[in-house]
Structures are given as structure tokens and as C-alpha cells.
Amino acid sequence: EFSIMIADPTNTKANVTILNVLGEQFATFENLNNNGGIINVSNLNVANGLYMVKVSAGAKIFCSRILVNQ
């Protein structure tokens, strides 16, 4: 499980998409709770590596890179 902090303190539902370095969609999580700008994602089993995270909350879209090193 990991948490994402975004610059949107509203409590709108959020969608999270995980992409690999080739831009291929790896996983999608829909209608997650946005608790004051913090979104918790669970059940994500990925190998070590670099991934892109795209978060859609309301009309806003946030993108970031994450490095997984377990």
C-alpha cells in the first residue's frame, strides 16, 4: 500500500493509473477516496523499477514518477 499526496484538498473521488516506462497502462484504481489531498492505493504488486502515476481528481490531473525499490 502507498499514499499519494496531491494539491487538491477537496474530498472528490479520484482515479489512479499506473504506467510503466514504456507508457503502457499497468494498473487502474477508480473511485478512490481523496481525504483532504491524500489518496491511499492498495493491492499493487509491482516489480522494482520506475513507474508513472497519473491521478485524476475532479477536473484536475496530476502526474508524477515513482521509483519502487523493495
List the helices and strands and how they pair.
Elements: E1 2-5, E2 14-19, E3 25-32, E4 38-41, E5 49-57, E6 60-68
Antiparallel strand pairs: 1-4, 2-3, 2-5, 5-6
Task: Tell me the overall shape.
Answer: globular
Distance between the termini: 12 Å
**Low-confidence spans:** none
Proportion of residues in helical segments: under 10%
Q: Specify the structural class.
A: mainly beta
**Hey, roughly how much beta strand do the residues contain?**
over 45%
Radius of gyration: 12 Å
Mean pLDDT: 86
* Arrangement of strands in the largest sheet: 3-2-5-6
Count of helical regions: 0
Notes on the protein architecture:
With 70 residues, the protein is mostly beta strands. It has strands spanning 2-5, 14-19, 25-32, 38-41, 49-57, 60-68. The protein starts with a strand and ends with a strand. The chain has no helices and six strands. It is 0% helix and 57% strand. The model has no long low-confidence stretch (mean pLDDT 86). Strands 3-2-5-6 form a four-stranded antiparallel β-sheet, with no helix packed on it. Strand 2 (14-19) and strand 3 (25-32) form a beta hairpin.
